[in-house]
Specification:
19% strand, 12 strands, alpha+beta, six-stranded antiparallel β-sheet, 10 helices, elongated
Length: 388
């Protein structure tokens, strides 16, 4: 009887088994389909993210190199959320300089330098390899002691325009994530190079080729911007120094234009050393005329600093700038005019004109002196007792 029951249940059991197998197969198929859909959705999201990154990079390339760097850092966080430290190194004076650092752990890297041939530095090894380098690929030190994983990816390897992206994380980075960072670097490279070329063009337009100081046009644009901002901050103080070299024509006639250029470069270096704040301006106004703008400086202090600059120019040993064998003596000094905003002027042009007029007062009353605008609108030469 038992056998009869077993025989009767066998088809039912077989049916149940088939149904179960079919059910499991269906579940597996649905699981695979769900996984495929998830993978497809992730792929589409990554594609959308890269399209958006490309759009933002193109816009940043029209702004500045700094804007491109910011977008690279933002994009790295999008495609690799585990990355919490990003460094960008640029070739500068034969070394790699950290031009931008993102992330709390990496902030102190900004401005640091690495030798191009440093075998322990991830950025330098990346340049040498010419492709991605991870901590596992080479015996290099992690960018930060807390890094579990890090990767260096070249953005550009052109001579003089080398740039490397270094990303670090306190957790492991999967091969897929590293591939995304490499893809980001490849996408960002054209934008970086375009922005770099634009910056070089802008610098050539804004800075004098001989002295490295601001050109007259760039200086006036920046001065106008400072004056415009001062309108909304009544406490702002701007002081302009108009500097004209005494006897420069005699120097040129005696020693030639090459010596004249050498003297202008020497004077430019002195003028750069006279400024203190980042917003201060130093410009070549044309020929042997220069301008300095002191920001956040009162007029009395600016006059003192102008006198110090005059004394340094008068003490300059110019003999080494003369051609070999030259015996003529031409003493180089400077006449400096000082005018302040808002005390002496209400606009950028007015400020320039008043400082220029003060400079001519110094020149016409004996040269080698500082003159300034008085309270009554006239001009006064800094007296010897005032210098002391």
């Amino acid at each position: 009887m038992i056998l009869d029951v077993a025989r009767e249940l066998a088809p039912v059991a077989a049916a149940w088994t088939c149904a179960a197998c079919a059910g499991w197969a269906g579940l597996r198929a649905r699981g695979r389909a769900r996984a495929d859909r998830d993978a497809l959705r992730s792929a589409r999201e990554r594609e959308t993210a890269f399209v958006e990154i490309a759009r933002r990079l193109a816009g940043a390339a029209r702004e500045s190199v700094d804007a491109v760097r910011d977008e690279i850092a933002r994009g790295a966080r999008v495609v690799a959320p585990a990355v919490d430290g990003i460094l960008l190194y640029d070739e500068h004076e034969g070394a790699l300089r950290c031009s931008a650092a993102y992330g709390t752990r990496f902030a102190y890297f900004a401005g640091t330098r690495i030798a191009l041939d440093d075998p322990a530095a991830l950025a330098a090894r990346t340049v040498a390899a010419g492709h991605r380098v991870t901590l596992g690929d080479a015996r290099v030190a992690p960018p930060h002691p807390a890094d579990t994983a890090a990767v260096g990816v070249p953005l550009a390897l052109d001579a003089g325009r080398t740039c490397v992206l270094v990303a670090g994380a306190t957790s492991e980075l999967s091969p897929d994530v590293i591939d995304r960072l490499v893809a980001l670097a490849e996408q960002a490279s054209p934008a970086y190079l375009i922005a770099l070329d634009r910056e070089h063009d802008r610098r050539r337009a804004e800075y004098d080729g001989l002295t490295g100081l601001l050109t007259p046009r760039a200086f006036r644009q920046r001065l106008s911007a400072l004056v415009e901002r001062a309108r909304f901050a009544p406490a702002t103080q701007l002081v302009l120094l108009f500097v004209d070299t005494d006897r420069f024509k005699l120097w040129n006639d005696a020693f030639g234009h090459a010596a004249g250029d050498a003297l202008l470069r020497e004077l430019a270096q002195l003028l750069r050393g006279a400024v203190r704040f980042e917003r201060d301006l130093v410009a070549r106004n044309g020929g042997d005329e220069f301008c300095i703008v002191f920001t956040d400086t009162d007029k009395a202090t600016a006059i003192e600093r102008a006198e110090l600059l005059r004394a340094r120019i008068a003490a300059l040993d110019c003999r080494r700038l003369r051609p070999a064998g030259a015996t003529a003596e031409v003493r180089i000094t400077a006449s400096i005019g000082v005018a302040a905003l808002p005390a002496d002027a209400t606009s950028a042009n007015d400020l320039l004109e008043r400082a220029d007029a003060a400079m001519y007062h110094a020149k016409q009353t004996g040269r080698d002196a500082v003159a300034y605008v008085e309270l009554d609108g006239g001009y006064a030469r800094l007296r010897l007792e005032e210098r002391d």
